[in-house]
Amino acid sequence: MKFKGKIWKFGDNIDTDAIIPARYLNIWDPQGLAAHCMEDASPEFAKLVKPGDIIVGGENFGCGSSREHAPIAIKAAGVACVVARSFARIFYRNSFNMGLPIFESRELWEKVQEGEEIEVDADAGFIRTGAALLPIQQVPPFMQELIADGGLMNHIARKGL
Question: 20 to 30 Å CA-CA from 49: which of 30, 43, 56, 144?
Fold first, then answer.
């Protein structure tokens, strides 16, 4: 998995309400959720994000509720992947179940600025920022399969389970 895109930088403790506010949880269409993605954290995000852009978060990204709407909204907005210092555990698992690639990097947040372009090479285990190469935590093989299949339901269908 390789991704290259412009970053949108967010701080620590971005919760699921900031990713997709609860007032939109009656929307089931992924594109409808994408129209409100990150609305409470960055009101212009949904209008300005481009396919392939990358979200960079601080500590505990995706904390809050267990709603799957949050990774669905991010993925439907066209975000290629999310890299954060750490993720809330339920968001971490929901992201793989929904087919949203996410990676942990303890160093990236402090080394980049919003709008900068980075390259995430998950296969090689690094992120390229300008001239620097930063390590990322390897994604377990099963989780890589979920991403490659587009999420848990597609994975189950592909395996005929």
Answer: 144
